[in-house]
Description:
Distance between the termini: 30 Å
Mean pLDDT: 92
Strand order of the largest sheet: 1-2-3-5-4
Helix content: 25-40%
Order of helices and strands: HHEEEHEEEEH
Amino acid sequence: MSHETLQVFEEEKNTIKEYSFWKLLISNRSRTLGNCVLIIKRDVHRFSELTEEEVVELGVAVKEVENALQGAFRYDKINWLMLMMKEPQVHFHVIPRYREPREFGRKNFVDGFQASPLTIEKLELTQEMLDLIRNEINKSILGA
Length: 144
């Protein structure tokens, strides 16, 4: 059974890749093109409670996610946020940042680049658009 954070980000619909200890999901609360969430699969509420194996796999996942997002959308920089303000389980918000607008799926995505990712308005994306983005990232992961 999945925990609260996985449910909030709708793992059934939005999973991009499942690792042994982590799940990568497209964020259903996106702020930029390719905004993802990397979530620990077990119910852990403190970063310090991760096992050595979970930390090692986190490093592998970070490299793979950054490479996949670069391949899919050519971000200019990337923000990793670990906030856990609403959902208590350990997870990271992965927010690709763009100096110039990006067009994808006939939609124009504009990022405030220098702005804090917390101040960027949430995008109103349909599940269809989330699926297109998820599939594009997945293609980059499989090609890596």
